[in-house]
Structure formats: structure tokens, C-alpha cells
Amino acid sequence: MPFQTGMSKVFAGIFVALTVSIIGGTIAMVILYKMDLSEANPTPRPTFPPTTTELPPVMRLPKSLVPESYTIFFQPHLYTRIIEEVNVTSPNQTFLFTGNSTVHFHCVQNTFSIYLHSRDLTVSDPLVRNEDTNERIRSIVKHHGDETDFLEVQLDDVLEAGGNYSLFLAFRGEISDYLEGLFLSTYVEGNPEYEDDPNAERCLAATNLQPTDARRLFPCFDEPEMKAVFYVTIIHRRDTTALGNAAVQESVIIDDEWKRTRFHVTPRMSTYLLAFTVSEFTSVESSYERVKIKTYARPEAIAAGHAQYASSITGKILSFYEKIFEINYEQSKLDQIALPDLNPSAMENWGLVTYQQGDLLYQEGVSSLLHKEEIAKLIAHELAHQWFGNLVTMKWWNEVWLNEGFATYMSDFAVNAVEPAFNIKDLFVMDNLHIAFEEDALASSHPLSPPAEDVQTTAEITGMFDAISYSKGAIVLRMLADVVGETVFNKGIKMYLKAFKGENTDHNNLWDFIQKAEDENRETKNIAELMHPWTNQMGYPVITINTTTGEIYQKQFLFNHSVESSLSWKIPINYMSNVSASARVWLYATGPVKYEEFISNKGEWILANINCTGYYRVNYNQENWQRLLTQLETNQHRIPLMNRGQLVDDAFNLARAKLLDVTLALNSTRFLSKEKEYLPWESAIRNLKYFVLMFDRTEVNGPMQAYLRKQVKGLYNYFRNYTDNSTVPEDHSSQHNQINAIQVACSNGLPECIEMAQKQFADWMNSNNTNNIHPNLRSTIYCQAVAAGGKKEWEFAWNKYLSSRDTSEKDQLRHALSCTRKIWLLNRYLEYTLDPEKIRLMDVASTIFSIGRNVAGQALAWNFIRAHWEYVSQGGGSLLIAGVSSRFSTQFELEELERFQADYDLGAAYRTVSLAIEQTCVNIQWVRENRDTVLQWFEGETATVEW
Ligand SMILES: *[C@@H]1O[C@H](CO)[C@@H](O)[C@H](O)[C@H]1NC(C)=O
Ligand SMILES: *[C@@H]1O[C@H](CO)[C@@H](O)[C@H](O)[C@H]1NC(C)=O
Ligand SMILES: *[C@@H]1O[C@H](CO)[C@@H](O)[C@H](O)[C@H]1NC(C)=O
Ligand SMILES: *[C@@H]1O[C@H](CO)[C@@H](O)[C@H](O)[C@H]1NC(C)=O
Ligand SMILES: *[C@@H]1O[C@H](CO)[C@@H](O)[C@H](O)[C@H]1NC(C)=O
Ligand SMILES: [Zn+2]
């Protein structure tokens, strides 16, 4: 699955770093029971029928049984169309699903009990058979009904090591409303004017099982290492199509109502990858060599060609991976389906990849050109999982980074191969490095590979799907690839995939094969030793280079400078100067270590971490900083593009951690008045965002806005010919930067920008439905026009939101509605989030998030969240907290947060509240210490401008 779950692109832009990590050193792990699994004795024989209610020994399944195959029947009784009969008051619909499964397994250790997982299912009719003798073993089913989700089948006779057995169970459950297990999704098909017609509503059923929801679908050994093959049959309504992981073997009509679709056997895989859908969707086909690729969506969307873009790149991406991994995709078909509802935004089920429709569909002339980038990245991410994750899977969820870090890392190459004009490689640094840096600088972060014992409950497992696993995982792999060279790295991962095909691994297995490739290349680096600190420790280092003495040392980079740390890393340092080309040295110890190379003899500057290939920050002595900033202001092109962005990012973050003066950080933005490139601007905008959040409720706001207007004016004018005519430049990074220019200019009150936004929006309002605003610019212009406008603009946008059938347009409008400065409109909008007819549940959290990020809406959103926590948190409690607490910087706000944590049932969001509390403490202190300096600096920079 991709990172930034449940968040559409429009929202992703304003979403700086949502820090949600469940595990971490400070949180006590709930390990309920301990058991020595190596114990040779079988589980004690229960009295039969059992009288005790003894709890199972650990949260993990015993390793006595090894599943080999499942034969499963599923029958969702759902109707896709609701038929309203005259006399029936409630809709004619049913959410029941029934089924049965037979799992064949091998016994490796004597046992009197079969433990497997099951949640929210009614399980009956157990039948245990000795497959070798065909004898039946008397058994009874017992639910533990606790957090383990264990279903115990207690046996009258021992299962013996070496024997083969099978277990049949019938089950029934309910199709979920909450996007988990087998869930319901609805949409409206047909003419939008019939929106109110219940006959236009359509239902479908789809599964979403990662990480621990397979157990909601059928009783199973629901752990990633318990791989098996699956023979699946779906019994579904006659007028629907059933899709599964594997190709259809046979689909027959069995009576007036039902159809039976039997699928070929799946590859050997983990339970969380199982998937099926039952819907009326249609598809577009784009076969590639042996693989039949079909992209499914609402019939209307298919007919309108919205799946065309996705369909056109999928085969190319698959082919790219097949070539670099030298292993063919395992199946004869690959289905992708654009679901009206799904959280996260996509899931890599083997052979049946599911997507939130807005993230897969593209509408020519309506969707932003930049949306193609997101679609390509997402498909590339999910397809990379067909190898990293599906074919070779992490042993346990504590190392989900082996799935997610790799998928994130590889997707970058795939997109670059398929869409070179996207220039994705540079953006990769922005996307991942900064997000990882942000989260990993907190004392509450966690290592890429924490001990397996620390990750046991579903909440702990879900918590592993965070920026560390995705972004740090990818960045650390990129660093290793840079150190050993891409050729060696790729050779290593090819060997690794071949060796572990169909199996499970941990990070040592990966290092072994990179080592093999390295050895074959006659290099001598010890990969496991180099990588150990990066995977087994949390955090990352900042190195300090003193160009006066040539001395260099490292320490852990933490925002909270009062936390003591003695961690150290093995750091590859690429560097250059204004008189010499790039070279590399290593820092193995804490230091200081002296390097002649780093002594500046004639006042030249030295720059380290060229192109940001290393996962660390760099600090310098004052003189060197000064020389680097002077270089930026005189001719920034002497500094590589990525480093122009990184210097700004490092300066701001070092200042935040009190390792550098805040004025030096602010000085690092001076060169922007002449800078036209995206990366440095984006980096500065993200960093200044913190200043905006801390100060936009204070007297700093005036001079701060004046400074930003002054800096952005050049950039705004650079794109002005495009913007005024509502057109866009050719290349993607300029397109991104044009949007930045408008955003910064308008939100800081550059009059020509606001006029432009109002004019373009008014033209649309007065035009009888012809919208001439370029799709790229819509999101920004809608937001700025709503912000500058009043009731008329807001209501126009709201009506457009209601009537639009296009998901990305809907998202843009939904975001724009949160931009208003009118309190009463924001209040009305908050109320609307309680009505699923107005705002779908899956959109509630991101909507309130945006309102909470608006300076005018923050306090309203905070009250609202507390008043309606139970409902609104369903859509993503962590996101709500992150949005609303982002400005918290007073003692009062801190106390409110603490009270909130104590009084509310926060579930998975508890951790986010802890992080928010930690962040608020940091903010309070930061504001206290920096407010005067920052105010003076902005006033000094703008002494000659009006504000
Ligand atoms: C509907 O109600 C009418 C009048 O009460 C009755 O005559 C008819 O049989 C009902 N139809 C069904 C299908 O129940
Ligand atoms: C629902 O509608 C179907 C199809 O018209 C019908 O066969 C079924 O009996 C109805 N069920 C209920 C509970 O009304
Ligand atoms: C399992 O379910 C399928 C489909 O409903 C049914 O045909 C089959 O008889 C069931 N198996 C057993 C053993 O009940
Ligand atoms: C840094 O990146 C640029 C642009 O991608 C590239 O041209 C340059 O060779 C890279 N420098 C090093 C030292 O790898
Ligand atoms: C660099 O070294 C000089 C000379 O020893 C010292 O005065 C200065 O404080 C050092 N700067 C840093 C940032 O370590
Ligand atoms: Zn993923």
C-alpha cells in the first residue's frame, strides 16, 4: 500500500509531515504472554469438552502447524442494485456473506489444538481430518474473544508431527461499512440529474485485508509467514462480475439468482494479499506479452475513457520490472480496479490491485497534468510490490520496510523509465528525504527494524506503515545503492529475489545478497556492518564539518536538543568545493576526526552530501556557511540543484534543533528572489510553513508576509504570461513551481495574484459552466478565490462540489471550501462533515484537517473534533490531530491537548496525540526563544517595503 493513506493529492500538498508511529522506545509494549516456542512438549491436552478458559500463550500463532492450501467458498448476498418495493419500508438489501473453507496443513510439532485467526465471524461445523489415514478427529471450536483474535479448535486426539491434516469450517459474517475485511462501497450510476433517485445507487463488495483483516473474511493462519496457495470460488449475483487474485477458471450460472466463479489457484502467498471484488464494473484491456491487463472502473468512467491513462502505462511498468528483476510477473493476468471507497489509496493484492478511484482515474482536460505523476507513482509502487512483498515477503510486520521501502524506492525508477518528462528523480528527494528527516528527528521515532516482539497487536502492526518504513526505508536503500553502485545493488537484489522467491526474509537476507554482488565485484565493504546502524537504530546523524581545522564529527540529530544520545553511524560523505570535483570519505566513529580535505585554505567553500545521497544532515562552521550563502546569492548555479534545496532544509532544521542561528536559516532564503527552480523553492516553502504556523496569529505576520511577497514577486512574474492566460509551462518541475508561485503570492497578499484568482473564478461563475481555468491551477485558484471571496464564491464552489462527478475536481473543491476566512462558513462546513450525504466518511478527516490548517478555522475545528470525536475519528483520527494541533504553541493549548488525551477514547490516534503534545512543548519553547529575533529579521528585510 502507498504512504499518505486516505489523503488525496490536493490535500497531500498541504500535509507536511503527519507523524504517526505506534511503536517506540518510550511506549511500553503489551506483551501478554510469553512462551518458549522451542519447547519440545506438545501443548497440554485440554480436558474434553474443555472446562478451562486458558488464554493462548502469545499474540503470535504457535508454529506447530504449517498451512499449505486453502479451498474457500465465499458468497456475498449483497445486491448491487437496491430494489424498492411498494410495501417494503426499508431498502431491499442484505449485507450477509457466508462461506466455508478447508485448510490443508502439515503438523511439525504434536498438538491438541489448532490455533488460527478469526474476527467478527460466526464459525461452525468444524471437521478435522487426518489426510494420511482419512480419519475424522472430533473437535470443538472456541473463540477467545480477546485481542489475539485466536480461534482455537480443540481436538479429541493429538495431531502428530509429520502428519498431514485438514480443517473444514463454515462461517458467516457481515459486509463491513468501514472499509475493512469484505466491505461495501456505493456509487451513483447514470445521469447526475437522477442523483436523488435511489434506483441510481449501486453497491459493490470488495476486500481490503492488509495487515490483519483476512481473519475478518475467513478463519485462517493470518500471519505473513504462513504462506499457502488458495483455491477460491465466489458465488455471486448473476448480474455481477467477480474478480479474484488469479484468472477465472470457470464462471457458470447456477440458477435464477446466482453465478459461480471459480478461479485458478493463486501463487503461494500470504493471507493479507488475498482479494476479491463483486461488482457491475466494466474494464479496459491493455495486454502486454503474456499478461492480460484489465483496468476496471464504474461503467461510466470506463466509457468516458478515464481509465485510459492508467491502462496505457501499466504494461510498460510491468515490463520495466520484469527486465530489471529478471523474474517474470507470476500470473497470466493483472487486474486493477478503481473503487469508489478504499483506505489506503491502493493495495497491492497479487493479481488484483485495488485503488481509490480518484488516485487511478484521469480525465483529459479536467485533471491536473500533475495528477498523472501521482497515478504513475502509485501504479509503479503497487506493481513493485508484486515482487517486493508478494513474491518475497517480510517475515513479520516489524520489517514492513522491506516491502514498503523497496516499493517506494523502485517506483521511482519505473516512473522515470516510463515517463522521463516527469523528472521524478529530483522530486523523490523532496517526497521521501524530508518526510523521513522530519519524523526520525523525534525522540519517539523507531528503527526501521525494531524487534519483532515489539510489534504484536494490530495497532502496533498498523503503526509500522509510517514514514519511517516507507520513506526512510527508500532513502536508506538509495544510500546503499550509491555506496556500492547501482549495478552491484541491482545485481544483489536480483539474486535476493531469485533466492527467496515464494519465501519470507529479514534484512540480513538482503545484506547477504548485496554482499555477494559486492564480493563478486571484488569490493571489500562489509554490508551488514555498514547497514546495521541505519536499520537497527532509530534516528539519523548530523555531521559537523569545521573547515578551519578540517575536523569532522557526528551526533544524532534530534529536534529536542536536551535528549542525550550516544548513537553513531557509518557515514559515507560525498563532498565538493568551488575548486575541486566531488570525492568521498567515510566517518566511522563519533569523532572528531581530522581530514586535510576539509581544510579551506584560500577561503573556498566546502559542500557535503552532494545530491543528498546520504541520510544525514550537514552543519558547518560559520565561515563556511557564510561562503555557501554568498555563493547562493551571487550565482546559485554553482551549487547542485538538490543541494540548493537541501542547504535551506538543513539550515532551518539545524536552527530548529538549536545547532544554528535562526537568522542564518532565514538568510538562506535570500537567494530565492532570483531562484526559478522548483526544489529550492519547495524546500523553503515547507520550512517557512513552520514559521507561518507559529506566527500567523501574531505581530510577526505582517512583516513576514511582506518579505514573502518581495521574494516571490520575481517567480510570480516569471510565470505570469502563463498564469494570466491560464496556461502552463512544458516541464513538470516548472509546472509544480508555477503553482508554488501562485500559492505563495496570493496567500501573502500580492495584489496582482489575488486579482488574477478572483477574475478567473468570476469568469467561471459567470460563464454558464465553461471552466477555462487550467486544470493544473484549479486547486490553487479555487482556494485563493474562495479565501478572498465571501458567501457567493463559497456557495458556488459548494454547488459545484455537489454536482461534480469527477473525483479530482470534487477533491479540489472540497479543499477550496476550507479556504474561506469567514467563520460562519467554516462552521457550516464543519457541520456538513457529519452528514455522509454531503461529505463521505472517508473524506471527513482530510476535510477537517484542511479546516484546522486554516488560521481562521483552527479553533473551530479543535472544538468540533472534541464534540464529535466518535464519528469524525473513524475517517482517520491521527490526521485530525495532526491538522488541528499544527499551530499549538501556548501553555493553554498544551493543557487542552493533555486533557483530551486523558478524557477521550483515542484508539490508534493515542500515539499521535502524544506526538502532538511533544511537538507543542517544543513549539512553546521555540516561539518564546525566537519570536523577537524573527520579528526583527523580517522587519529588517522589509524596512523599505510597505506592509
Ligand atoms: C402490498 O400491499 C397491498 C395493500 O396493502 C397488498 O394488497 C399487496 O399484496 C402487498 N404486496 C406485497 C408484495 O406484499
Ligand atoms: C428483494 O428483491 C429481490 C428481487 O426483486 C427479491 O427476490 C427478494 O425476495 C427481495 N427480498 C426482500 C427481503 O424483500
Ligand atoms: C461450501 O460452500 C459451497 C458453496 O455454498 C457449497 O457448495 C459446499 O457444499 C459447501 N461445503 C460443505 C462441505 O458444506
Ligand atoms: C548530482 O546530480 C546531478 C543531476 O542529477 C548530476 O548531473 C551530477 O552528476 C550528480 N553529482 C554527483 C556527484 O553524483
Ligand atoms: C572550528 O574550529 C575553530 C578553531 O578551532 C573553532 O574556533 C570553532 O569554534 C570551530 N567551529 C565549529 C563549528 O566547530
Ligand atoms: Zn506499499
Automatic annotation (TrEMBL):
Species this protein is from: Parambassis ranga (Indian glassy fish)
Stored InterPro entries: Aminopeptidase_N-like_N, Aminopeptidase_N-like_N_sf, ERAP1-like_C_dom, M1_APN-typ, Peptidase_M1, Peptidase_M1_aminopeptidases, Peptidase_M1_dom, Peptidase_M4/M1_CTD_sf
Sequence intervals crossing the membrane: 12-33
Domain ERAP1-like C-terminal: 605-919
Protein name: Aminopeptidase
Lineage of source species: Eukaryota, Metazoa, Chordata, Craniata, Vertebrata
Keywords: Aminopeptidase, Glycoprotein, Hydrolase, Membrane, Metal-binding, Metalloprotease, Protease, Signal-anchor, Transmembrane, Transmembrane helix, Zinc
Topology in membrane: Single-pass type II membrane protein
Family, as annotated: Belongs to the peptidase M1 family.
UniProt key word Membrane: yes
Superkingdom of the source species: Eukaryota
Span of domain Aminopeptidase N-like N-terminal: 67-273
Active-site residues, record numbering mapped to chain: E382
UniProt entry tagged with the keyword Glycoprotein: yes
